[in-house]
Design a protein that fits this description.
13 strands, 3 domains, 485 residues, 12 helices, 52% helix, three-stranded mixed beta sheet
Length: 485
């Protein structure tokens, strides 16, 4: 009776094994397996208890195979399983064997897995008998790679996971870490922020020490500006020497040579004060550089203003009804203009230093990845008050020189003063937006460039024409030529 029932079982089992073969070709779903399981349940009612144990083992084996397939073990597509109805089951040495013409090319053993609590740990469930071969390969082979159970690849170091809206948690995008953040492991949810003195590298994989940056003499920019400052001061000193050597000539005497000396000395200091801005900021340099720049430039502009006022006085003194004849050649007027104008700037600087003293600081945030060592001006209001006062002096000087531009030839210096003040005002009006829009050492470079440019403008516009006459056109350096008589 059992023999006939086993034959019927084998026929049904063959059909079920064909269904299992489809699992290798089709998408595996719980519905496919439920169909196979249901057919096996029908067999349970047709065989005795001994056959039920064998069939139950086969069902558990199918359950394990299906779970393993879902959890990462794939069937080799080049060696698909081929089941047919000629399978035979026998039991030798307490091992269930499958005899089939579709067996693999070599003996293959399958150990039971711990995923099923009813499976026997470490015991063989079935094996292919030796010598049974087929050119289509073994029952299945385990791949060297494991299929992913998520829909996204792991995020490499330097990236973080960002969940996709409306999708399962296993689906995400890999987003690069922001500047100053890193991930030194794969598949992390959040990036790690570097400390205050560290910064992330290009790959966002590790934190590196921030670069300490300032306008140094060793930098190409700092060296260039320092070279220009030295050259400018050398040229100014050379012009001063020329004026001292030819002090008795009409061109030098034409417009108060003492004011020319003061102006040339102040221009030399203007060029040299820019060197204080270059180098590592220290408390002394931070304390001196802006006040020195403001005071020296106020003396310079005051000297130009005094020269312009003397031109106006000399021209008006030629009128018959003028009361200014006694003031022509007086040294009190230019001296009072220079002292009074400079003292106001000195007072502004004293208030600045006493209320908000400048000091060196490390700026961590202005330039990413760098620590900018710079001078904190203490009070931005006082800094712009100093610049505003210089602008006021330059504006007054420009207006006076512009009104005196059509004076006789003897006083044609007013034309050059007008143009020099126009250059000065243009440079410093351009300086303010450039100063506010730059960061780090470029801010200091902009201010140094403005100092050098405005100083060079005054030197070239006022003194180079006179040097041309003194050195190259001595025939024009005569009293008759200068006075026009």
């Amino acid at each position: 009776m059992i023999k006939y029932m086993l034959k019927d079982y084998e026929s049904k089992l063959g059909t079920l094994l064909v269904d299992l073969n489809k699992l290798n070709n089709d998408v595996v779903t719980d519905i496919n397996f439920a169909h196979v399981k249901r057919d096996y349940d029908h067999v349970f009612h047709d065989v005795d208890q001994h056959c039920i144990k064998i069939v139950n083992r086969k069902v558990r084996k199918l359950e394990r195979d299906l779970n393993e397939y879902k959890n990462g073990i794939a069937y080799q597509p080049a060696h698909k399983l081929n089941y047919n109805t000629n399978n035979r089951f026998n039991r030798v040495d307490n091992v269930d064997n499958i005899d089939s013409p579709a067996d693999g090319p070599r003996r293959s053993e399958r150990l039971a897995q711990k995923s099923n609590s009813n499976a026997r740990n470490g015991q063989q469930v079935f094996q292919f008998p030796p010598g049974r071969t087929n050119n289509r390969g073994p029952f299945y082979q385990q791949r060297s790679w494991v299929p992913r159970s998520v829909c996204s690849e792991p995020c490499p170091s330097g990236y973080r996971k960002a969940a996709r809206v409306g999708q399962p948690i296993c689906c995400f995008d890999c987003v690069p870490c922001s500047m100053g953040e890193i991930t030194n492991q794969t598949d992390l949810d959040d990036c790690i922020k570097c400390s205050e003195f560290l910064w992330s590298d290009v790959k966002r994989e590790k934190c590196l020490p921030k670069v300490i940056d300032f306008l140094a003499f060793e930098d190409s920019l700092g060296a260039s500006l320092a070279g220009l400052a030295v050259v400018g001061s050398f040229v100014t000193v050379s012009v001063l020497c020329i004026f001292v050597k030819f002090q008795d000539t009409p061109v030098v005497k034409a417009n108060n040579q003492e004011l020319s000396y003061i102006l040339l000395i102040s221009l030399t200091l203007c060029f040299l004060c820019s060197l204080i801005f270059i180098g590592h900021p220290m408390r002394t340099t931070c304390l001196l550089r802006q006040p020195a720049f403001g005071i020296v430039f106020s003396v310079c502009i005051s000297s130009v203003l005094a020269k312009t006022v003397i031109v106006v006085i000399a021209f008006n003194a030629t009128k018959p009804s003028s009361n200014l004849k006694n003031r022509v050649g007086s040294r009190k007027i230019p001296s009072s203009i220079i002292v009074s104008s400079s003292m106001l700037q000195i007072i502004i600087c004293i208030i600045w230093l006493s209320s908000a003293t400048p000091y060196p600081q490390n700026n961590m945030n202005s330039v990413p990845g760098k620590i900018i060592t710079e001078c904190n001006e203490g009070s931005a209001v006082m800094f712009y008050c100093m610049l505003g006062y210089l602008g006021l002096l330059a504006g007054i000087c420009f207006v006076v020189a512009f009104l005196a531009r059509n004076l006789p030839d003897r006083f044609n210096e007013a034309k050059y003063i007008t143009f020099s003040m126009f250059v000065f005002i243009s440079v410093w009006l351009s300086f303010i937006p450039a100063y506010l829009s730059t960061r780090g050492k470029n801010t200091i470079a902009v201010e140094i460039f403005a100092i050098l440019t405005s100083s060079a403008g005054l030197l070239v516009c006022i003194f180079i024409p006179k040097c041309y006459i003194i050195l190259l056109r001595p025939d024009m350096n005569l009293k008759e030529k200068v006075t026009g008589k």
